[in-house]
Amino acid sequence: QQQVKQSPQSLIVQKGGISIINCAYENTAFDYFPWYQQFPGKGPALLIAIRPDVSEKKEGRFTISFNKSAKQFSLHIMDSQPGDSATYFCAAGGNDMRFGAGTRLTVKP
Amino acid sequence: NAGVTQTPKFQVLKTGQSMTLQCAQDMNHNSMYWYRQDPGMGLRLIYYSASEGTTDKGEVPNGYNVSRLNKREFSLRLESAAPSQTSVYFCASSARLVGAGEQYFGPGTRLTVT
């Protein structure tokens, strides 16, 4: 079964807008929640990550919001740019990571 | 500093053939991982190696074997390829077990089994 559910599958945003991608997990033992960015033909690259002892983490235009009680976390991309167009994966786990199915983001100029 | 390298980049196999996917990292990382990526399913962990000399099964280990040859190299072997193993395979490494740190991914191997 899929232990990390990610939505939406695809997202189209205008340049300058806010992109929001959501994930939900099931296993309360998970203690590490990264987001990865993947461009076509490349391997995923870590974008930002959070641990469950904080509710929010911001790095530049990227913010993770984390709700431990709801077992949900989300990625917000502020001032979205065409160069942000990629597939984004959330993940959750400890030693054994579980990935969401991915969100294809398109930022229109 | 090449990071994580994988060979080959592309491979086509016939059902029943065997092959080994090679992975090497030059970051002196302790932990290494093999994932497969299929459309609509994200990445799924096949095997991982927490440190040199150890390997453990991930989420989808059936049909695969691994060898942690040394600290730098971690190979994935398909003994008898099946069409269900058509996928993109990614190797990754991290300084320590994934829950404690960032994973660095290689460029992937695109495998087709006919």
Write a structural description.
The complex is a heterodimer of chains A (109) and B (114). Chain A is an all-beta fold. Chain A is 0% helix and 56% strand. In chain A, the strands form two sheets. In chain A, strands 2, 4, 5, 9, 10 and 11 form a six-stranded mixed beta sheet that branches. Chain A has a five-stranded antiparallel beta sheet with strand order 1-3-8-7-6, with no helix packed on it. The relative contact order of chain A is 0.35. The model of chain A has no long low-confidence stretch (mean pLDDT 93). In chain B, strands 2, 4, 5, 6, 9, 10 and 11 form a seven-stranded mixed beta sheet that branches. Chain B has a four-stranded antiparallel beta sheet with strand order 1-3-8-7, with no helix packed on it. Chain B starts with a strand and ends with a strand. The chains are: A mainly beta (109), B mainly beta (114).
Order of helices and strands of chain A: EEEEEEEEEEE
The rough form of chain A would be described as globular
Our measurement of the CA-to-CA distance between the termini of chain B, rounded to an integer number of angstroms, reads 36 Å
Q: If helices are DSSP runs of H or I spanning 4 or more residues, what is the number of helices of chain A?
A: 0
Which protein chains are joined by the largest interface, and how many residues does each one contribute? A-B, 25 and 24 residues
Structural class of chain A: mainly beta
Q: Using only CA atoms, what is the Rg of chain A?
A: 13 Å
Task: Return the string of H and E elements of chain B.
Answer: EEEEEEEEEEE
Number of helices of chain B: 0
Give the averaged pLDDT of chain A, no decimals: 93
Q: Could you describe the largest sheet of chain A, including whether it forms a barrel?
A: 6 strands, mixed
Oligomer: heterodimer
User: Roughly how much helix do the residues of chain A carry, as a percent range?
Assistant: under 10%
Compute the separation of the termini of chain A in Å. Answer: 38 Å
- Overall shape of chain B: it is globular
Approximate strand percentage of chain A? over 45%
